[in-house]
Amino acid sequence: MSNFFDLTGKTALITGAGGLLGPKHAEAIIEYGGKVILTDHHLDRVEEKSRYLNEKYGEGSSVALYMNVTDPASVNAVADKCGQVDILINNAAKDPKVKKDSGLTVESRFETMTPEYWNEGIDAVLNGAFYCSQAFGKKMLESGGGVILNISSDLGVIAPDQRIYRKEGIPDEQQNVKPITYSAAKWAIIGMTKYLSVYWAKKNIRVNSLSPTGVFNDHPEDFVKKLSGIIPMGRMADINEYKGAIVFLCSDASSYMTGENMVIDGGKTVW
């Protein structure tokens, strides 16, 4: 019987692979037979991740490369350097997080947001996905096809509930918020997904997006409680819970699926 999830012989390039979910995307690809190219503008981070993956899964499972997705020259240099790339996972993002030691800043507020802050947020997510899809899409056209998976967010589907970021005793105008840059960019990347899926439909290039919700990563207890309270399943996602979706969307298991945005959020966008 055919294994529709088999990725043997496939090479996936992952952007923003030095972050939280990028290495997990890599694990998913490797565990089903593929190899990965980890890219990030923090080379030390992906080199560390690559060493770990090669120790765990065998030498040659992964390589690490410097790539700044906001710089077309950097993206094109990596595209020229790489051999065949069968799968592109546009994972890079600028996403201000709520952490125990630091968090969102007041400059995230719409009324006081600077053009520089706006451009940085859009550049990392939307422009980066554009540059990478263009460069590696050309390689896929030359090789006869491929898969592009854009990582969006539940906040590209619904607006963020700013109540979960509020701190008691702070005036409204000084409250930190989830910035518009993140929602705008993640919404736009879904639009790019749909556009490219039709544009390259007859070229054997499938383009889909995945919209996860918040993944637990040692967040403050009060934040976890607030976010879990607006998720029907009553909890944040575990770091490993998107690996199955990655394999499905990158393999022949989804061979007749293109232009879709898969939302996996514990039911959050249903409410």
Tell me the span between the first and last alpha carbons.
40 Å
Find the CATH superfamily: NAD(P)-binding Rossmann-like Domain
**Radius of gyration, rounded?**
18 Å
Number of domains: 1
Report the principal-axis shape.
globular
The CATH top-level class label:
Alpha Beta
Structural class: alpha/beta
| Average pLDDT, all residues | 94
**What is the CATH architecture assignment?**
3-Layer(aba) Sandwich
User: How many helices?
Assistant: 7
CATH topology, by name, is: Rossmann fold
Helix and strand run: EHEHEHEHEHEHHE
Strand order in the sheet with the most strands: 3-2-1-4-5-6-7
Salient structural properties:
7-stranded parallel β-sheet, globular, 271 residues, alpha/beta, 7 strands, 7 helices, Rossmann fold
Describe this structure in words.
With 271 residues, the protein is an alpha/beta fold. The protein has one domain (11-262): 3-Layer(aba) Sandwich (Rossmann fold). It has helices spanning 22-31, 43-57, 72-81, 115-143, 180-199, 221-228, 243-250; strands spanning 11-14, 35-40, 62-66, 87-90, 146-151, 205-212, 261-264. The chain has a 7-stranded parallel β-sheet with strand order 3-2-1-4-5-6-7, sandwiched between helices. The radius of gyration is 18 Å and the shape is globular. It starts with 10 loop residues before the first strand and ends in a 7-residue tail after the last strand.
Summarize the structure.
The protein is an alpha/beta fold and 271 residues long. It has helices at residues 22-31, 43-57, 72-81, 115-143, 180-199, 221-228, 243-250, and strands at residues 11-14, 35-40, 62-66, 87-90, 146-151, 205-212, 261-264.
